[in-house]
Amino acid sequence: MQRKKHNLEHSRVDNGRATTTPTHTEKVAGGAQDGSGLQDTHVEHSDVDRLPYLRAVIRETLRLHTVVPLVPNKAKEMVEIHGHTVPKGCTVLVNIWAVHHDAAVWPEPDSFMPERFLPPLRRDQETGFLGTTVFDLIPFSAGRRVCLGLPLATRMVHAMLGSLMHRFEWTLTPEAKENGVDMSEKLGVTLSMATPLQAIAKEYV
User: Fold this and answer.
1) Phi, psi for residue 158 in degrees, rounded to 5
2) CA pair distance 127, 138, nearest whole angstrom
3) Where is this region: Disordered (predicted)?
């Protein structure tokens, strides 16, 4: 895959460099929607509804960096799809990565833009994770074959990431600040970073 670099100066993917900005982390760590902030050092599931930017960041991360890019299914009977005959018993791979990077649905699909899930775009109202009526965002697959861990994952990821961002100040290592973060992905059953990310956490006083 194309090698991309990540630093903390910009908020788009430009010239092959995937970048973000401190604003993203500040917004996630900043607290509740009304600006009052969270009073505790950890985020409970009950807090998530007051953290729209956290929800948007997680949705955008799952869209941009699809954990399971290809989901296999088997044709129960012979079908024809767009002029192509799929024999019974044939293994069919659903390209979730391509769904999440469709420029007709997601403007600037290679850019990290959590705002696409916030007003005025408000995609979070029309795009869920279940894949039952809308199929724009299906990181957990869709329909009857949806991942059984979806309810637990969505609860735990929001609470865990929210707590980590709320309690610690995160910075890159000196080497990463100088050279950028390698955002290349290693293809397998799941997608992972080719070079593991290293960061420095400093607890807020």
Assistant:
1) -60, -45
2) 9
3) 1-44
Q: How much is the pTM? A: 0.78
What is the residue extent of each domain of the chain?
5-66+107-203
Within 36-191, where are the H helices?
52-64, 96-100, 150-167, 174-179
Q: Which residues contact 174 (CB under 8 A, 6 or more apart)?
A: none
CA–CA dist 63, 112 (Å, integer): 9
Q: Where are the beta strands (DSSP E) in 37-133?
A: 70-74, 79-81, 84-86, 91-95
Question: Domain 5-66+107-203 is of which CATH architecture?
Answer: Orthogonal Bundle (1.10)
Structure tokens at 154: 């969505």
Output the tens digit of pLDDT for each of the chain's 205 residues: 333 433 323 333 333 334 445 567 766 765 544 444 555 667 787 888 888 888 889 999 999 999 999 999 899 999 998 899 999 999 999 999 999 999 998 999 999 999 988 887 766 555 566 666 678 899 998 888 888 888 888 889 998 998 888 888 889 999 988 988 898 888 888 889 999 999 999 998 7
Q: What angle do CA 51, 57, 59 make, to 5 degrees?
A: 105
Task: Determine if residue 90 is labeled as part of a ligand binding site.
Answer: no
DSSP-derived secondary structure letter, 161: H
Q: In which residue are the tokens 């899930």 written?
A: 117
